Amino acid sequence: MQGVIIVGTDTEIGKTCFGTGLVYRLLTAGLDVQPLKLIAAGGREVNGVFKNEDAEAYERLVQGSIPYEKINPICYEPPISPHLAANELGESLSVQRLVAATKSSLVDHKDIVILEGAGGLMQPLNDKETFLDVIKVLGWPVIFVVGLRLGCLNHTLLSMKALKHENIPCLGWVANILDQNMLYLSENIKTLQALLPIPLVATIPYLQPFSVEQVARHINVDFITKHLRVAAATP
Fold first, then answer.
1. Are strands 142-148 and 170-177 parallel, antiparallel or unpaired?
2. Which of 10, 83, 146, 147 has the greatest CB tally within 10 Å of its CB?
3. Is 207 known to sit in a ligand binding site?
4. CATH entry, 3-232, from 3.40.91.80, 3.40.50.300, 3.40.50.2300, 1.20.1740.10
């Protein structure tokens, strides 16, 4: 099964915002999509299962057709770095564990997987491995979400350099406006367009209240869908 991984400059920069909008748009375009929030920290117990609110947003989109455990196989209660949350329980995270969790979560006969990454690219899993290493092993291309706020240029260019260094294909980037009062907002976006060697596939405005349908309207889905349909048809 083919997939795309949503990554970002940091935590809380809009990966789920874009991811849910993308999954919604792809479902309405006729693709049979599986969302996968592989690992989450910050959950509450619901009928004996720890659930994360971001993963629940994906669960609502598929309307019960995929069990929660297949959408979010690893969830920890405290809202801290996942490797620290795992340590609190005497567990350990590793590339091997996360890749195995990905494979065991896949639902048969789906066209494509939209996997949301954890934190930023260099989110630690243990003393030696990061989430970037998971991306390398899975071999799926990424879509890169940039949270538009002060400091985003440095964070974005460092993250893009890491992707290029590891030869990880990137389909495009997303400008997610976190600060509606950001000075020189359009100039920051233009700077990134000039410096990033990938297309801008969505510019998501500051939305209050948040709406998946509104996010979906701002995604240039044609380019993404073309890639996903090709990938879905690949054995």
1. parallel
2. 146
3. yes
4. 3.40.50.300
16 annotated to a ligand binding site: yes
Residue in 15, 37, 51, 110 annotated catalytic: 37
Would you call 161 a catalytic residue per the annotation? no
Backbone φ and ψ for 134, nearest 5 degrees, come out as -65, -45
**Beta 44-46 vs 49-51: how paired, if at all?**
antiparallel
- Cα separation of the two ends of the chain: 8
172 annotated ligand binder: no
Tens digits of residue pLDDT in 185-205: 999 999 999 999 999 999 999
**Residue 34: enclosing H or E segment and its boundaries?**
strand 33-37
User: Vertex 122, ends 59 and 14: CA angle to 5°?
Assistant: 40
Q: Are 169 and 139 in contact (CB under 8 A)?
A: no
What's the length of the chain? 235
* pTM of the complete model beyond 0.85: yes
Q: Please, what is the angle between helix 53-61 and helix 15-28, to 10°?
A: 10
Sequence ranges of the domains in the chain: 3-232
54 is in an annotated binding site: yes
